[in-house]
Fold this protein.
Amino acid sequence: MTLAQKINAYSEWRVQLSEKLEDFRRWLSESDLIDPEIDARLDRALDKLREDQLHIAFVAEFSRGKTELINAIFFAGYGNRMLPSTVGRTTMCPTELMYREEKPPSIELLPIRTRRTSTRISEYRNFPEEWTVLPLDIASPEALQAALRSVSETERVPIDLALRLGFVVNNDDPAALHADDEGLVEIPHWRHAVINFPHPLLKNGLVILDTPGLNAIGTEPELTLSLLPNAHAVLFILAADTGVTHSDLAVWNQHISVSSNAKRGRLVVLNKIDGLWDDLKPQSEIDDEIARQISHCAQTLDLPENQIFPVSAKKGLIAKVNDDDALLKRSRLLELEQALSEKLTPAKQEIVRENVYAEFADIFSNARRRYETRLDSIQEQIGELQELRGKNTNVVEYMMGKIRVEKEEFETGLQRYYAARSIFSKLTNKLFASLGIESLHTLISATRVSMDHAKFSNLLSLAMDNFFSALRSNLAHSETEINEIQAMIEAVYKKFLVEYGLKLGTPKSFSLMRCAKAIDHLEVWCNTNINNRFRLMTSDKERVIRVFFDEVAAQTRRSFERANLDAEMWLKSIMSPLENQVREHQIQIKRRLESLKRIHQATDTLEERINELEHVKSDLLAQINSLNRMGQGVLDAMNATPAPAEDAEAA
């Protein structure tokens, strides 16, 4: 399948799985097996499917043909270059291409002057009045191209303003911005652009991130702390004739390879191989030259050669527009598209499948255990009543007394259950004392005070080091509390299983590894970009502090907020089965006692009651079979291999 077909198929898979989960939720509701906690968990799983997106980031220094590559892969079907692609710098600000049905086709542009505030791009998304919006006339390719050229706009400003906006100005550094003879610096006119375009792939959840060169990447921390690390695939574009230059290597080391799972989903594109084509050379010699460049790039970037793809984006685009199969084959563009289709959607689908399965499997198991508990109780009642056939009232009274004793023993056991809940509550409070947002805010405030009062760069650096040390200490304490909660719940589960036969299974485990890895990534970024001797000596103290709190502290807060939400869901998921089983056991004991009372009062109802219970048993078995069918339907949809619809649109 092509990339377009893969993404269409993946989108259809999400829709079908969502429908099966909705059917499962309705069935649970009709069967009186749903509660607010289960409903919230199903909502969470469905939200992951509805809002799921595939993010592809294109990263390169300027003049590597990055935008032309995007045109060739995604927009060739429009018969022309949709995104501006000319010699020199074209994409001057990070640009996201996506589609939101609730919005008209448009370009949203955030002015570069917003960098003077401490507000992040993600926060500005909530304030549409801060953006300049240009409508897109999708019926006119010329008007569309003219509007899209806005992402290339620049302005000339004094050096001091460029510095205040976070740009590096140094005429001796080729990666920095340079001042002209008038003392002015050319900077992007826009800070960020979001293009809402009804492209078939974008409609199905694809998000394309087009990034500017090194200087702009380095001055927009949110790009490297959030957008790039969260991309499911990153295409790093080099020029085939130059290979890995010093500025290319700087981009790779600082912004791509340092992220978690750096080699997973990272593809390197050796663009402009048409520059190596020579009618006076045999094709074998050209292929050998390309192979040498691949080998050199693989060694320099420490990547397998099968993750490096030589292409000609320009010739590939021309070939697609002109339906020139021979030229398209020579451009090698299809090989890159095939690699994207094989790596991108299957990897993303596996992540989504694992997340949804984790929620579904636990809910399904708990529902089945509740039915099995009811079935065991019914079978026990039937057995007790069958033993009473032909017996006198004294035997019935004896059985009633036996159940009353069992009821009293269970009520005594409930005291231990209530005590366990009290301990659980105390341990939970201790967990959120170290993991909670309030303790994080206290740490952030203390760090700000330390950095504000730091008179020397080494004290500024120490404050940042202490911040990460305190974070790890909080996470370590939190892990200790999590392990204690886990051990206590396992002991309670085991006790109620052994003494009362409650079907509780194994409590779900939980870890803060995801949060810990996010903190590790933040520290690496911090040490690379602000907390090192060179940066501290050459940067203004106020700017260092602002970047640290606007980006590092803000990202830390997001990681801890996610961890808190996950911890809350975990705590509910391990207590809910116990509460449901205890309540179910109480109800069944009460029913057994009431059944014997009826028989004691009128012995001729014994057979009627046995028949009633046999009918209840049959209904329960039918419900268990129905539950199994519903669960299998969800699993079949979850494990299905996505196949594109016959009429699916293609790029």
Q: What stands out?
A: The first strand starts at residue 54 and ends at 59. Residues 647-651 have pLDDT under 50 and may be disordered.
